[in-house]
Amino acid sequence: MITIIYHESFLTVSEKDLFENQLSLEIRFCLAPDGRIIDCNQNGDIMVRQFGHSFYDFFTKDAVIEAKAFLNAIQKEPDIVSALLHDRMNDRDMGIYYNGFFKNGKIYLAGYRTDPLKRAAAEFAHELRNPLTVIKGFVQLSTYTQEFDKYNRTILSEIDRMYGILDNFLKLTRKKINMKKMLPDKLCMALIAFISSECLVKKVTFDYDIAFSVNVCNVDLSMIKQVILNMLRNALEAVEGKEGTEKKIFFRGSVEDSGYRISLTDNGPGIENHLLKQVGRPFFSTKENGTGVGLSLCKKIITEHHGSFCLSSMPGKGTTASFSLPFAD
C-alpha cells in the first residue's frame, strides 16, 4: 500500500537543468497527466532508454497501481507530494523517493535513490551502538563487583544519550501534528522574546500589540513557531537593505469574529502587485537564492490548523504577513 506524504522541504524542480553537475544524483522528469514523459534530465534519460517513454514503464504490474495513485495525488494537491516507489531497478536499493508537483498541466518529479537512506540507517545504528557498548560494560562490571549504585549515574546518562540520538533521528521523519488548546494571546507572548532577540541582533526596532482573548485555539506550538520563524526571516531580509531610515518590525495579535489573527509587519520596500499574486506559490521566489518553499510551507501548516494565511504589501511602504487561527469549539 502506498504512503503519500505532503513533504516539508524540497529542492526546486525547474524545467531547465541549470544545476545538472551539482545535482548529478537527482533524477528529474516532466510528465503529461497520463504519465507520458515529455522531458527529463540525463539520469532520467537512462531510465527512459532502459524501460520506455512512460513513467508507468518503470514499474512492474503490481507497482504500477502505486505509481498511478501517486500521480493522481500530485494532480489533486497544491503542495509537494512525496512517495517511495519500488521500481524495476530496486535490486540496487529500496527504490526511488519521488517528490512531485503539478503546474501548468504538467507533472514535475524529482527522484532520489534510497541508497543514501541505507547509509543514514547504518550511521544511526553505529551511533546507538556506542552508548549500548558502554551500558553493557558497566552492567557487567556492576554485576561482578555488586556495586550497582556506583555505576548507576553513568548508565542513566548513556540511556539519555540514546534517547537524544533517537529523537534527532525521528525529527527527520516526524509528521504528526500535536494539537493542544492554548490561549492565542499567551501563544503570542511566548513568541515575543524570541522575535525581539532576533530583531535586537539585526539592529531592527521591534514593537508589538497583543489583544487579550478569552477563547482558546487548537495549535501545534512547534509548527506555529516554524511559521513565525519563516515570517520573521522574510521580514528581516526585507528591511536588511534599508538605509537612511529606521528599520522596523511590528508584531500584532488581534481578536476576530471566529478566530485570532497573528501578523508581522515590516517597513521594507514592499512587493509589486504583479509579484504579490504569485508569492506563496510553491517554487516561486522573489529572492535570488530562494527556493519558493517557505511561504508555501507556512500556508500548508496554517491550513492544517484550519486557518488562513494572508500576505499584503504596499510598494515602498512594507509588507504584512498574517494568519488566522479559528477558536476551538
UniProtKB/TrEMBL annotation:
An example Gene Ontology molecular-function term: ATP binding
Pfam families, alphabetized: HATPase_c, HisKA
Top-tier EC class: transferase
SMART domains in alphabetical order: HATPase_c, HisKA
Keyword Protein transport: no
Gene3D superfamilies (alphabetical): 1.10.287.130, Histidine kinase-like ATPase, C-terminal domain (3.30.565.10)
Protein name (record): histidine kinase
Organism whose genome encodes this protein: Sporolactobacillus sp. Y61
